[in-house]
Task: structure prediction
Amino acid sequence: NAGVMQNPRHLVRRRGQEARLRCSPMKGHSHVYWYRQLPEEGLKFMVYLQKENIIDESGMPKERFSAEFPKEGPSILRIQQVVRGDSAAYFCASSNRALNTGELFFGEGSRLTVL
Amino acid sequence: GESVGLHLPTLSVQEGDNSIINCAYSNSASDYFIWYKQESGKGPQFIIDIRSNMDKRQGQRVTVLLNKTVKHLSLQIAATQPGDSAVYFCAENPGANSKLTFGKGITLSVRP
Result:
């Protein structure tokens, strides 16, 4: 029973480059959430996706950030033209909405460092 | 605005003592609450949850108390162990779309 898998675990980018973070939800989960965590801070909601649909992107910055969850394959969080302020840990979580427990299962995170 | 916050940023306890971590929430529509534990370099792990129709829920060594009147949530850890050292987050869910809102987190440090 594999949990939520995120890769890469660590990613270093220079300013202006692109970062792609991948998330494979738990088996049987069709709901994916992305959260961002700055050092010494809590988790901030970014986006909630279902297969092929963005349900809630109210936490996503208006520019440079995008997310997708295709019918096949992992969910992708894409950050274009990264800036130093994008340095953070990005966590993916999944749930089985049918259970309606609200509990999210988190991955180990992808830590982005922008030089 | 909606917010979930924690009263204290750090808590230091002696091994074997009981720990109490407190959390305030402001969204009176929230009907589901979760405590997560996050160890250094890892993702948050579920500890215990409680729905708004309950005042108390117990797990293994942990108890969550919910006071809806004052919108307060607490996590009690019995016989705190070194392995309990971590950052603890409370999170609330208004119930509409399972979008959890997290508090800032409190660091629990267990002294040997």
